[in-house]
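Data card: per-record layout.
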Amino acid sequence: MTENPCQQPPWYHKHWKVTAFLTLCVTLLVLMVFFSKFQSESVIILGTLGGDYSEARAINKFGMVVGWSRTKSGDERAFLWTKEKGMEDLGTIGGKCSYARAINESGMVVGNSKTKSGNMHAFLWTREKGMEDIGTLGGKYSYAKDINESGMVVGYSETKDGNSHAFLWTREKGMEDLGTIGGDSSYAYAINESGMVVGSSETKNGNDHAFLWTNEKGMKALNTLGRDFSYANSINESGQIVGRVSSKSPWWVKVWYWIDEKLSRPGNKPFPSINNTGPADAEAVLWTVPPPEKNKK
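The structure for this 297-residue chain is written out next.
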């Protein structure tokens, strides 16, 4: 008699209940593992300060979140959110609105706030001192964009002559003008723990050009492979910098990265920030510049 290859073995008919039960258990276990991946991902609604809108802009490794929210009166206020206390209104420096843009691991917050006179000024907020006006470079406005663990703050401010210049602020020296690379204006967007600052500056011909500023060498233009415009947006502890370059005509934008001060790896995707292990997307752009200690060797 020829054996039917589709026929179940004799033991299957004898113990089919046990087999079915084990099959069900394995199936349920697989489903539990599969769905646990989705259950482990959660979304927390941070709420508002009483209004109908809120926006989170930055988070540190302890889960402390900063941004801004509308209040019941319709004003926009900088906030600090923690799991323990929820959303806290950080106040203003005299005006009705404020906006938090960055936070370090120590919980120091920077951003900008309206003053009593209605001008926008950069601020530093700490739990001990509250919100402090860190001033301007002689003009009416200033904006803080980033802060490192040492409490060094970067951003840009109006100068006495009405131009915008990148600044570095410290508790010891106050707000310092970082200058430009030949043009009238410059803007600082990020700083790392070594005090290396990146941003963009106008050149003599009026184009915006990515820069790296260090205490040792001042402001230095970064390579753009002949493109007309470039912007450096973020820098990590290894000195890797990300940003974008673009041509005048036809208008297009490509993201790059700089390694050893050389621009490489063209790509098409935006790359606003990076972590300390380098870019997360292989198509993005990055410069790598040795930290100050390595520059001295």
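Known properties of this structure: Residues 56 and 67 are 4 Å apart (CA to CA). The two ends are 86 Å apart (CA to CA).

See the next section for split statistics.
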